[in-house]
């Protein structure tokens, strides 16, 4: 049985307004490969941690106006790869029309790419 390992760290956030792409990344972690799962691109580092998340058509994905995604105040993502499944939990607070909006989507997808059977989990946040 593979032992669980957890990475906790500070993160970086960016939003490409023109192309409607939202980025969450763990600071000081470089990725060595990426996996595309629908409109998500997950960056994986050399220790099999998911260290970055890119969401295309983010305003549609979160059902929010694009302008609100420019105003993300605090966020956290948790991701893990286990039993040939990727689980990503993203929660963030955005401001729209002077109101704080909380979003907490969860994505669980089976993966077909060759991935090691690690129980690598990342928790990354900006508060």
Kindly describe this structure.
With 127 residues, the chain is mainly beta. It has one domain. Helices cover 7% and strands 63% of the residues. It contains two helices and ten strands; from the N terminus they run βββββααβββββ. Strands 1, 2, 3, 4, 5, 6, 7, 8, 9 and 10 form a ten-stranded mixed sheet that branches. The longest helix has 5 residues, at 58-62. The chain is globular and about 40 Å long. The relative contact order is 0.27. The mean pLDDT is 76.
Low-confidence stretches: none
Could you tell me the mean pLDDT? 76
* Count of DSSP H/I helices: 2
Distance between the termini: 35 Å
- Overall shape: globular
**Proportion in β-strands:** over 45%
- Give helix % range: under 10%
Structural class: mainly beta
Reading the helices and strands in chain order gives EEEEEHHEEEEE
Q: Which secondary structure elements does this structure contain, and how are they paired or packed?
A:
Elements lengths: L3 E13 L4 E6 L4 E7 L2 E6 L4 E7 L1 H5 L3 H4 L2 E11 L2 E12 L2 E5 L2 E5 L8 E8 L1
Question: In a nutshell, what does this entry contain?
Answer:
The protein is mostly beta strands and 127 residues long.
Q: Keywords for this structure?
A:
single chain; 127 residues; mainly beta; 10-stranded mixed sheet; 2 helices; 7% helix; globular
